[in-house]
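user:
I keep going back and forth on a fold encoding question. Separate attempts, laid side by side, tell us more than any discussion would. Would you put together a sequence-and-structure record for a protein of your own picking? Write it directly below this note and I will take it from there.

assistant:
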Amino acid sequence: MDFWWIAYGLIVLFSVIGLGGTIYIAGTRDEKYGSSTKQNLTRLTLIYAVVILLSIIALTVYVVI
C-alpha cells in the first residue's frame, strides 16, 4: 500500500518540476519570442493539467482493479 503513495508523489513531483521549469523559462523571454510566450505558456499549462489528471486517474484505476 505504501508503494502507491510513493507513485502518486512521484507523479505530482515530476509534474510540478516540469511546470515550474516551463514558467521559469517563459519568464526569461526574448524580445522576438515575447509575443507568443503567453500563448505557448497557456498551452503548456493546459497540457500539464491534463497529463496530471489523467495520470492520477490511470493510477487510481490500476490500484483499484
User: Anything to note?
Assistant: The chain has a mean pLDDT of 78. The chain has one domain: 2-64. The chain has two helices and no strands. The CA atoms of residues 5 and 11 lie 10 Å apart.
